[in-house]
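Tokens for chain A. Residues wanted.
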């Protein structure tokens, strides 16, 4: 390598490092927002320790690094390429959660990210199979996945129909997909269920029970009963986790028993594309 090449490489590395620094004012702003969300989550959860996923879609890597330096480790992204780009720049002990629409043709790219921790939006056997095929054999841990459930029944939302009873569950898409992952996808680990509820239920969460959260809990309980009699490993410590709740309703979700909440605006502020 010539001296000129070494100097050019050094300049690029220095530029990349400086681009990850943010102003003291922004650091202070993020520190206050993150601390406030963490405190509110701790109070709402009361009896359990939830996972807070900081949703960093459209936010610069410098914001993520600032939160990382404050101890935050779980971050969520909606777009595969944006996640790839950020993962290359940031510490490799970040736990990345993919929370966007999962396309089968993006699975290989997604699975190639060394510290991808969980994919929370699996909704078909095709996507699960595609992911399982491309998870690198050298991974120390399986890739955790959540099955997405459309609890509100809205056409614009992705996800499978929820479960209502054990008796009607045997023919459901959700049960078939869960069994496919548990028995046919050894490089994946079914960790739980995820939902993006309706705006109406979210806005009313402070006044009454959120029916989307109740529906996901019921689906989890039914799926629990179904999977107890099947072979394979699933869940965490013998239970399926729930990923529900975002910036506007995460406290209600935690009070309802959510294990994972996904908060973006509450930490990073409004998103600008």
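Reply:
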């Amino acid at each position: 390598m010539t001296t000129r090449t070494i100097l050019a490489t050094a300049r690029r590395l220095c530029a990349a490092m400086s681009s990850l620094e943010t102003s003291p004012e922004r650091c202070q702003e993020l520190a206050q927002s993150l601390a406030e969300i963490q405190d509110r989550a701790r109070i709402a959860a009361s009896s359990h320790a939830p996972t807070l996923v900081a949703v960093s879609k459209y936010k610069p890597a410098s914001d993520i690094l600032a939160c990382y330096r404050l101890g935050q480790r779980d971050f969520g992204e909606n777009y595969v390429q944006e996640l790839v780009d950020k993962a290359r720049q940031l510490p490799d002990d970040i736990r990345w959660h993919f929370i966007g629409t999962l396309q089968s043709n993006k699975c290989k790219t997604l699975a190639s990210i060394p510290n991808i921790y969980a994919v929370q939006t699996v909704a078909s056997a095709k996507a699960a199979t595609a992911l399982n095929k491309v998870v690198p054999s050298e991974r120390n841990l399986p890739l955790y996945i959540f099955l997405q459930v459309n609890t509100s029944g809205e056409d614009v939302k992705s996800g499978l129909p929820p479960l209502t009873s054990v008796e009607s569950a045997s023919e459901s898409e959700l049960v078939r997909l869960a069994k496919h992952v548990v028995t046919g996808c050894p490089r994946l680990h079914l960790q739980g269920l995820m939902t993006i509820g309706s705006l109406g239920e979210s806005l009313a969460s402070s006044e009454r029970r959120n029916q989307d959260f109740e529906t996901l809990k019921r689906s989890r309980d039914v799926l629990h009963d179904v999977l107890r009699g099947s072979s394979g490993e699933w869940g965490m410590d013998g239970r399926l986790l729930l990923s529900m709740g975002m910036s506007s309703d995460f406290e209600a979700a935690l009070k309802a028993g959510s294990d994972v909440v996904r908060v973006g605006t509450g930490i990073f502020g409004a998103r600008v594309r």
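Strands lie at 51-55, 74-77, 95-98, 116-122, 143-148, 188-194, 241-243, 260-263. The mean pLDDT is 90.
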